[in-house]
Amino acid sequence: MTIEDAEWKPPIVTVTVDLVIFTVRDGDLQVLLIDRGIEPYLGYPALPGGYIDKGETLEEAALRELHEETGLDARTLHLEQLHAYSDPRRDPRGRVITVAYLALGPDLPVPVSGTDAAAASWAPVSDALAGRLAFDHAGILRDGLERARSQLEHTTVAAAFCVEPFTISDLRHIYEAVWGFKLDPSNFRRKVTRTEGFLEPTGERYVPQIGRPALLYRRGNAAALSPPLLRTSQLSSAGGNAADRTMPLVPQENAGLAGSD
Amino acid sequence: MTIEDAEWKPPIVTVTVDLVIFTVRDGDLQVLLIDRGIEPYLGYPALPGGYIDKGETLEEAALRELHEETGLDARTLHLEQLHAYSDPRRDPRGRVITVAYLALGPDLPVPVSGTDAAAASWAPVSDALAGRLAFDHAGILRDGLERARSQLEHTTVAAAFCVEPFTISDLRHIYEAVWGFKLDPSNFRRKVTRTEGFLEPTGERYVPQIGRPALLYRRGNAAALSPPLLRTSQLSSAGGNAADRTMPLVPQENAGLAGSD
DNA sequence: GAAATAGTGTCTCTAAGACAGTATGCT
DNA sequence: AGCATACTGTCTTAGAGACACTATTTC
């Protein structure tokens, strides 16, 4: 399992952390990308990331990079390890293993410029997957998308996308943006309100410009969703279906809280 | 995202692969452990593992180690990446990041001796977790156990534990050993037989010494189980099989939601 | 009033839990 | 025969999908 022989020199490996940072903006699931300022893949969009420092864990490195790229506080969002990628040819310059992390957060301010000259910006996931990404980042992004979609089924992380306080519609729009299809508002409400600890009513309400005012909620304590909220439906509504083409089907014009702060 | 500056020397990191190899023997979920022959943790049981070689992926390294430790062919069993562990203090000799893999296989012959002098042997998971393990391997084992339990809910990997051909009871015993409680034979049968592609009838049957003969099956093509077979029941039934003993051994450590490490 | 969205109620259907009852081998 | 296990059937209930209906706001 580890260093069994003092004479033996283990292969030299560089370890980095890459971040798949998702948010929902304008009804779209978006991912934070930087534009590479150097070779290889000069000019290509890439996932933000960086080296792991001596003395820090991978998660600490991920949090540090996250803060550097977005100026975001760790406590605001959800972070989880996604997968380690180790193809020896994934970086033409040498042996670089990367551990990808998935971060989910509410609609963030346009990100501050990253540590290096590269500019960071949000891009709809559908656009990002339609084009080319540096390294194996397209695969990492796909894995992150699938993980996020799956997490919404089994946990309450969807609330991590919402700015508090939020309405049930806001929460539903998160599911619709991530899964790529619409949900029945009535059944969705029944599910989330009857799941103990998912939502905590604030007693206040949000008065939109049109339509009936909605009650506002905060995140509850529950982390798990059991039974899960499975994505089996794909309600036939105009707009395509899920898959990787995602986004064209999001709620038209979100008048709710989602975009405010 | 990777090597941005040729002058800059990234921290030196060693990368290893550790294996959580599960099988079901004598109605118990068992894990393959080696006895450490050197310091640190001399004499402690540990998960098998080793360095990643130049030019191979982590998964290839895991398969190689698996073969070295058990003499097992890759095709016989299920292998999946579990998690990367990176606490800077997890190995007293230096900076060692390990990527753990989960391997599930049918009741294997007693493992061949490992590559080093250390002897490999099967131990019930409950015993392994009751005692001390080297490094952070107890935590890795716990994560592996939870992952295996969860996989049984959502996939057909339970069949990977079975030697073909197998009966539905054999399959149920796998679930019972991994989950640690008994299942209703009737309802279990209904679930697995009605899941398209889980089981493929061979037409043959197994004639036990006592009881009615049972039909024999092979693994089908289906990988996913939807709807899932959730472990919500915990049927109380006497009958001192492994099932009853396995249960209390897991501190509920959730590696799922908040990134771990 | 109309338009629009929030929220309630309810019918149906699937699938799981419980468990009775039948089948088929063995000694 | 008696036992043990395999297998079938059925009643009940939890929960999801579908969707009609009511409520509350702005214009």
Automatic annotation (TrEMBL), chains A, B:
The keyword Hydrolase applies. The keyword Hydrolase applies. Residues 10-146 form the Nudix hydrolase domain. Belongs to the Nudix hydrolase family. This is NUDIX hydrolase. GO terms for molecular function: hydrolase activity. Signal peptide: none annotated. It holds the Pfam family WHD_NrtR. InterPro entries: Nudix_hydrolase, NUDIX_hydrolase-like_dom_sf, NUDIX_hydrolase_CS, NUDIX_hydrolase_dom, WH-like_DNA-bd_sf, WH_DNA-bd_sf, WHD_NrtR. Residues 235-261 are annotated as: Disordered. Keywords: Hydrolase.
